[in-house]
UniProtKB/TrEMBL annotation:
InterPro entries to which the protein is assigned, alphabetical: Acyl_CoA_acyltransferase, GNAT_dom
UniProt xrefs under CDD domains: NAT_SF
Name assigned to this protein: GNAT family N-acetyltransferase
Domain N-acetyltransferase: 1-165
GO MF term list: acyltransferase activity
Top EC class for this record: transferase
Lineage: Bacteria, Bacillati, Bacillota, Bacilli, Bacillales
Protein's organism: Bacillus yunxiaonensis
Amino acid sequence: MEQIELVELDEENIDDGGCYCLRSKPSSTGYINKNKWLMRRFNEGLKYIKIMENNKPAGFIEYTPIEYSSRVVYGENYLVIHCLWVNITGKGYASKLINKSIQDAQEQNKDGVIVITNPNTSWTPSKDVFIKNNFREIDNAPYGFELLVNKFGHSPDPYFPKDWDERLKLFKDLTILRTQQCPFVDVSANNVVKAANKLGINAEIIDIKNREELLRLSPTPYGIYGVIYKNKLVSFHRLTVHSAIKRIKEII
């Protein structure tokens, strides 16, 4: 009989449990940076919960109060889901994790739970499982981003900013905007730097320090990673060196 357990990471067990992503590479820079990032976020109310099947990781969810969120969305008194991933499908584990976030939101007297999805990338959760769990789509943004909410309070609906084109105008040189919320950001940025070097272009990396910077600078709702060149979006997710070269050449 399967033994199913929800395990919440905290300051005490993070060294043993670690983040779900890149769990096979605990010595990698991305994994180490993610764990350090988590340690700084727990006191803000961030939750990182793994679902375990017979003591083995089967998936995880990460969410936090909107005022500390790494996603570019406006609203008051919501929780925001950053990530949801399950590697054992067909057993309702994703719904179990989503329902945990909803339960926490209700216990904290929040007005709902937000998630950002995008059908064009695996870097965001799948939309369908949220619709199944009573989320509804209420806004969208360029590049395929969708804003969904499960609302049970009286706060105004959350919303995306509308100045995406103006944000791109801030960056003419090849610029990488990043935080350490995702452990894959490190290799993603390195691939772009390698691509730029091959093309003889200098790449500037800006490490976003706080939510105010993120809300002001990010070129997409994803928030934690964006590459811009000549006022155009290169990518908001990981590219191979070859793909980055191709994309940069298209802009040139």
